[in-house]
Structure formats: structure tokens, C-alpha cells
Amino acid sequence: MKTLVTPLIALVLALPLAACGERPQANDPAADTTLGQKVREATDVARKQLAEGNISVSKHSGAKVEIAPDGSLLINDAAIPLDASQRALALRYRAQVVAVADAGIEIGVQGANLGVRAAGEAIKGVFSGDTSQIEQRINAEAEQLKARAAKICDQLPALLATQQQLAAAVPAFKPYATMDQGSIDKCRDGQVELP
Prior knowledge:
- By secondary structure, this protein is α+β, with helices and mostly antiparallel strands.
- Helix content is 66%, strand content 7%.
- The chain has a four-stranded antiparallel β-sheet.
């Protein structure tokens, strides 16, 4: 009777996965699981808001600092007058913030997919007794995901440079340009902080 307990527990734990309809293609880590599809649907809404709405670029000292899709810089909902070159800098900074956020969103979707696949593979491993090979595959996928996440950090030096240019060009923005080299270093340590 004791030998049935572990497979029975594994089967019960697998039921929520089965209920989700999770059946990604076997060797396609890019295939969305059912959970991944739901996460992607939710993040598509976030991506649309990033593309079409104002984005927050600072929360320094309680002030709300945003850049609108047209490049307008708003501090506490008040538009800061910008000339054409300042607006171009604001637009470039906005595009870079959106690119970093979008990359983070995609990593989140891929992480959800990996989590579901890992759970499914672990259950298969319990039944097949082949846990070491499954663990190697999941660890390899996790390392690939980690490498993709690290590439987000590679975008931060350009973002920092543009933030500094915008702060120099628009004095009203300078107090809110809080990203520094420490932010990049934290990212490389696994703590992504956007301005």
C-alpha cells in the first residue's frame, strides 16, 4: 500500500495541470502552455497600455513623472514645455523604457511556461523513474531563460545615457533622473529596477 501513496499523490497533484489543458509541444520551449497563454493575454493588455498610454518614468519624492506617447513630459500632470530636440530625447527615453519593460514582460511569460512544463516533467519523472534527464532538460531551459533575462541588463547603459541626456536638456526632469550605475549593477545581480 505504501508504494501506491507517492504515485497517487503525484496523480492528484497533476489534476490541476490537466484541468488547465496544459499540453505544450514536447521539444518547443517557445510554445505557450495554457497558463502561458493566459499570462500572454494579460501582458498583451499591458503592452498595449505601454504603447498607447503615458508611462511612469520616476516616482521620486512622491512626484508623478510621465512621458506621453507624443513625447510630452508631465510632472504631476503638468506639461513641461519642450523644444523639438528635448521632445526627441523624451521620445527616445520613452522607447528605451518601453523596450526594457517589454523584454521583462516576455521573460515573465516564458517563466510561467517553464514553471508549468517543469511541473509536468516532474510528474512524468515520478512515473517513469527518469528524473535526472528531466532535471537536466529543465535546468538547461532555466539557464536559457536566465541568459535572456540578463540581456535586459544589457539595455540599461543606453537607457542611463539617454536619461542623463534628458536630465541635462530639461532641468525640470533632473531631480527625477534617479537611475545610476548602481541600478545597472543591481540588475546584473538579478534585481531589475526601472526608473
